[in-house]
Amino acid sequence: MSLLLSKVAAQLILPPGGLILLGIIGLVFWRKWWGRGLVGLALALLWLLSTEPVRDALIHPLEFQSQALKVAELPTGPMTIVLLGGGIREKAPEYNGRDELGSSAMMRTLYAA
Question: Can you give the pLDDT at residue 86?
């Protein structure tokens, strides 16, 4: 239950959930001047966060926080490949009802191999 509450709280706090919640609060208090202001603020922030210049200004510091590795800096010897999941197809008829990897997960697995 606490996992569910933490997931719901995270979705309400992080964008766009927080801005939508701000707009809903503004709609509840629409008759007051600050309620209409909250709706306007939420719409303006949603629009701003959807534009390229604001997106680029927020992402740019994260992209250039560290330098890319050069080939000479790569470790020698045994290395590990981490393969992220991509979902499964449950009860696939071509595999006698067994589960199989989804198409994107299968391609990712083949590429990693």
Answer: 77
Q: Give the C-alpha separation, 20 to 28, whole Å.
A: 12
pLDDT tens figures, 53-87:
998 999 998 888 888 778 888 778 888 888 887 77
Give the residues across from 100 on adjacent strands. Answer: 89
What is the pTM for the complete model shown?
0.54
Q: Considering only CA atoms, which of 18, 19, 47, 23 is closest in space to residue 37?
A: 23
Structure tokens at 113: 């191999």
Tally Cβ neighbours within 10 Å of residue 13: 10
How far apart are alpha carbons 23 and 31 in whole angstroms? 14
Percent helix / strand / coil, the chain, rounded to 5: 60, 10, 30
